[in-house]
Design a protein that fits this description.
alpha/beta; two-stranded parallel ribbon; 7 helices
Length: 235
Amino acid sequence: MPCLTCPAGSTWDPRTFAEALREWSASSRDTYYLLVSALGPHPYPTIVRDFQAVIGREARRQILAAEGRLPDELVACVGGGSNAIGLFFAFLKDRSVRMTGIEAGGLGIAGGRHAARFQGGAPGVLHGTYTFLLQDASGQVRPTHSVAAGLDYPAVGPEHAWLRDRGRVRYGFATDRQAREAFHLLCRTEGILPALESAHALAYVIERAPKMRKKEILLMNLSGRGDKDLEAWPA
């Protein structure tokens, strides 16, 4: 049973997923389709969310044990969105908990070289999902850019689009430069090499935390490992 997924690499290629879906739809009896995020046709976004939700459930238990109350804000990076929805899902009914997802701002929103779907995207369909995606006036998928390979998909998970439309989750972005600076800061201060994907969320935390009151609690999902990114790190 072949498993069709995206090969490792720093550049997203829409042909990889398109061909995987074509093969899967034509050979569903002996082919398994896997897109490793909260994306794709139903029920895949739900399946991924439900498995990833263990992150949020554990975070909820741990913060209550450690602080005796819920956090004031949750933060996570958002590519396809499995990292963020895994953290957010257990807190969605807690209206006092703010939630912030951080997309890849790449080289800047104005120049168009980014992967921030909520900054420059519009509703559309990609790989079996109706959601926000980066597309031109003709509906063709626009190229994306991010220093983090896991954030450069041109669409976002449909549940994130829904949460944004409802106003439950706010979405921002961090640029490549901000993510790199956050990466280095965490390495120097904590001895932790974060994944470049999570470094985008960390960049937001670095900016946000000084503006919060001393007793407020900000909880961030620091996922992945940064050593995988070092070989491709620019000189």
